[in-house]
Amino acid sequence: MAPLKVSDFDASLMATAIFKDFRNVFKDEELYKLADIPLEFQGMRMLQLKRGYSSKEIKMKSSSPSVVYIGMPAENKNEHTYLDGNWHNT
């Protein structure tokens, strides 16, 4: 199986990285680090967004069907935080 490739994203707002412990959470900030990542998820591809990314859309393409997990800092969660499930397969 060929490795997953993620493309057609705005590189000024996002970067690709390998999901593992102590990786920076955000593209442009070193304050937050990933920690206690279960072994089954380590080594997967991830997109790092810029801190404060506020668009309601994340646009990208993947080279094969993929499961996408979305994370955010706990302090950003509130009653207005939601995902509408409006995914487009193009």
Structure, explained:
The chain is mainly beta. The protein has one domain. The chain is built from no helices and 6 strands. A two-stranded antiparallel sheet has the order 1-6. It is globular, with a radius of gyration of 14 Å. The model has no long low-confidence stretch (mean pLDDT 80).
Keywords:
0% helix
* Helical proportion, percent range: under 10%
Task: Give the overall shape.
Answer: globular
Radius of gyration: 14 Å
Number of strands: 6
Average of the residue pLDDT scores: 80
Total domain count: 1
Order of helices and strands: EEEEEE
Biggest pleated-sheet summary = 2 strands, antiparallel
Major sheet: arrangement of strands: 1-6
- The residue ranges in which pLDDT falls below 50 over 5 or more consecutive positions are none
SSE arrangement:
Layout: E1 6-7, E2 14-18, E3 24-26, E4 29-33, E5 45-49, E6 61-62
Antiparallel strand pairs: 1-6, 2-5, 3-4
Summarize the structure.
With 90 residues, this protein is mainly beta. It has one domain (6-76).
